[in-house]
Structures are given as structure tokens and as C-alpha cells.
Amino acid sequence: MADHLEASVTLPSDPASVSAARTYVVGTLAEWGLPAGTEVSDTVRLIVSELATNAVQHTLGQSPTFTVDLVLDREERLCVGVTDSHPRLPKRLPAAVQQDNGRGLVIIRWLAAESGGRLRVRPTREGGKTVFIELPWTAPAEPVTAAGRRERRR
Fold first, then answer.
1. I want to staple 34 with a disulfide (CB 3.0 to 4.6 A). Which of 8, 29, 73, 119 is the partner?
2. Domains and CATH numbers, the chain
3. SUPFAM superfamilies annotated for this entry (predicted)?
């Protein structure tokens, strides 16, 4: 595998694009050697879902698109970011026990930490922001069967 891989997709800020973002990321990770259905792939899929949902819901129509970027460096570190053009940086809100939303960043931060990674936010030169995670790359050494079991190499 190459020392550095990158992939990117720009989607309209529409709720239907969240599913497209998940599908794109899972497919790209599979091309890079991380099959769908693995714990890491499922974690990244959930994180992208939360980030894309935030980009659609919290830009208040001021970001017509969002971009999902994937970067794999030397098979050691995976970075997944979602960029939108809205200038307001995300902030953690206190979530009430009965509240149905408002926990996205808490979930993302927890999932990233559980996987040995971290969440970061940085402003873009254009005045928007990128919310991204960095995770250690942990592609399975053995192929995974259709039933989800690892095959032993002989």
C-alpha cells in the first residue's frame, strides 16, 4: 500500500447526503483494506454520520455543501474530516437527560477516544471549519469472510 492515501467527496447540505457520506467512507476504507463490518469501520461510519449530520443541521443553510476528507498516512494514522463553510465552531452543549439531540460531539469524542484517537476542530482559510478525528490505522491482518469471521492464512 502507498505511504499516503487521500480521498474526498463534496455533497449538498441535505439530510440525504448523510447516508451518501457514510457509504462513501465505508467504501473507501474497504478499498484501503479495512472491510465493512469491522469494529473500526463501524466506528468511523458512526462518526462520519454524526459529523455530516452536524454539518447539515447546524450551518443554518449558510453552507450549501460539506466535504468529507479521508487521509491515511503510512498505514499508521487515519484522519477523517468534515468541512463546511459556516464560521461558527461547534461547542459542547449541556444535554438534558430527555433531550433527543445535542450529544453528537460527546459521542464523537468518546468514540474517537475509545479507538485511541482524538477529535479536533480547526477553522479553514475560507472562513468555515473542519471537524476531524485522528485514529490509529488498524486494518485487520486476516481477511474477513462474508459471515464476519476472520479467515486464517496458511
1. 29
2. 4-91+101-136 (3.30.565.10)
3. ATPase domain of HSP90 chaperone/DNA topoisomerase II/histidine kinase
For cell 478499498, the residue is 31
Angle between helices 16-31 and 39-57 (to 10 degrees): 150
Answer yes or no: is pLDDT of 107 > 80.
yes
pLDDT in tens, 39-98: 989 999 999 999 999 999 887 778 899 999 999 997 789 999 999 999 888 776 665 554
pTM here is 0.82
* Nearest alpha-carbon partner for 52 in 78, 13, 106: 13
